[in-house]
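2024-03-11 09:14:02 DEBUG pipeline.ingest accepted 1 chain
2024-03-11 09:14:02 DEBUG pipeline.ingest length=396
2024-03-11 09:14:03 DEBUG pipeline.predict start
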Amino acid sequence: MRELMWAKFSASGLEGAECWALLAAGTLIVAVLALKPFESTLMGAGYYVLERRNQLLGAGFRVVLTLIACFHFKSIVAIAFAEAFALMLPPIVSTYAVLRRRLGVVKFSESSTATMRSLLGYSTRSFSVALTGTLILQSGTLIVAGLGNPAAVTYYSSAFRVYSSVRQLIFWSTDPFRPVLSQLWQKDRESAIKTLFGLFFLASASALTGSTVLILAATEISRLWLGNAAVAYGVPITIIVLLMGLSVNMFHVPFIPAMDAAGTPGAYFLLQLCWLAAYVPAGIVLGHHFGIVGVATAMSVSIVLLEPLYIRKAIKVLQLTWRGWLAGALRPVAFLLVPPLCMTAGVYFLVNVSDTRTPYGFVYSVLFLALVCINSVITRRRLPIETLRFAMKQKL
C-alpha cells in the first residue's frame, strides 16, 4: 500500500516534502471537524447571522489566500494550505464565539453520553441520506478517473464546480429557515406548511435562475476559464447537462429540512441508494462511449427518472396533497420565471433566424436575469415574500 501511495504521488509530479505537506493540510482539515458542533450551537442559540458571517469570512480568506498562493508562491502546497485555512477558520471562530458568550460548556458526563446516544438515533438516519448524497456527487469524478485520463478528470471537475456553485446556492437559501421550520412544525402546522412552500419558492427560484444564467453562458464560461480546448472537449455540454439535472433535482431539496423537522429524517435513504445504483452503472457505460458528457448524462437522467418518487415520498410523509403542493409551491415559481424564459427564448429565436451576428451567451444571461428582476417587482403580490418575512422574524 505504501509503495502504491508513493507511486501515485510520483506520477503526479509531487516531491516527498510536498506530499507530506499535503497530508498535513488534509489532517488539519479533518481534525477541525471536531469543532463543527460549535457552529450548530451558534445557530441553535439564535446567532445564525453570526455563523453565516463566519462562513463569509472563510470564503473571503479563501479567495485572497488562493490568489496570493497562485501569483506569489506559485505552489500547489501553498494553494492547499490556503484552502485548509479557509475551511478551518469558520469553526475556529464559531468555537471562540460560543465560549466567549458562554453559550455552552465543553465537558463529558454520563448524561451527555446518554444524550449523544439519543441524538445519534435521530441524526444517523439524516446522516445516512447526506452520506449517500456525497457518494453520488463524488462518483462522477471516480468514474471519469477510472475511464479517462488526467485531462478528463480536470475538465469534469471544472464542470462539476459550476454545478456545485448552484447547488450551494440552494442550500444557502434554505439553511436559515431550518430552525424556524422545526419550531413551527411543532407549534403551528399550517404556518409550517406555508413556510415550507415559501422555502420551496426561494430554493427553486434561486436554483432555476442560477442554472439558466450559467446554461446560457456555458460556452463563454468554459472558454474564458479553461481555454478553447475545454470547449472542444465538451465541457460546456457537460455543464449544461449537469445543471439541467440539478434544475429537476432541486424540487425535493426543500422537503429534506421539512421531514427532519417533522421527525422523519432518513426518509429519502432508499431513494438515494436507488439513485446511486442507477447512476454508477449508467455512468460507466455512457462514460466509456461519450466521455465526461456521458457521465453527466447518467447522473442527470437518473435523477430525472427518480424525482417524481422523491416528491411522492415527501407528500406522503408530510401529509400534503398534490394539488396543494402544485398551487402553493410551483405556481409562484411559474409566475416568476416562465415569462422571462419565454421572452429570452423569443429574443434568441429572432436573433438566430435573422442575418445579424449571434451575440455571446453572456448577453442572454444578463437579459434573462434582468427580466427576472423586473418580473419579481411586477408579480410581487403573487410571490410568497410575506411568508418568508414572517419566517425570518420568528424568534428561536
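2024-03-11 09:14:41 DEBUG pipeline.report The two ends are 51 Å apart (CA to CA).
2024-03-11 09:14:41 DEBUG pipeline.predict end
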